[in-house]
Every structure is written in C-alpha cells, then in structure tokens.
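Hi U.,

Before I forget, here's the chain from the pilot set. I'm dumping it here mostly so it's searchable later in email.
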Amino acid sequence: MIRPLQELKTIKINNYVKKVNRLFIDWKLPHYLRSFWPAIYDENGNFIYTPRYRKEFLKKNSNKLKVDIHEVINELIL
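Structure:
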C-alpha cells in the first residue's frame, strides 16, 4: 500500500527513531512535495520504505546545453 509519508510522525531507521519533518529538512525536500511524498506500508499499515529525495530527481528546464569533452593524449615514444 502506498500513502503519503507525512501521515507518520516518526519513522524508525536502523534502530534510530527520526521525526518525519526532520527527515524532510535533512533531505532538503521542497515544501510543495512534502504533503504527498510516498511511503510504502505493509497490509497491517506498518511503514516499510520511502524513497530518498535528491535534487537531481527534479527536472530543470534550461536553454543551456552542457557538453563535457574529454581528450586523451597519447604520447609517442621514439
């Protein structure tokens, strides 16, 4: 079952209890995503997993094109 993580007050990660709100702050999760950030629960409603947030998850619109050019120089030994 998938429901918003914000429904929980705390979660247990590696035998450490952490407030959900603090977790969102640590991840720097934008406020507009916090109300519906997903969490997976078992059939009894026990929390199982939530995906971690990273800024790279959000697609940024940009008119810039970034190209990385790597050049390998072979030295010839005569």
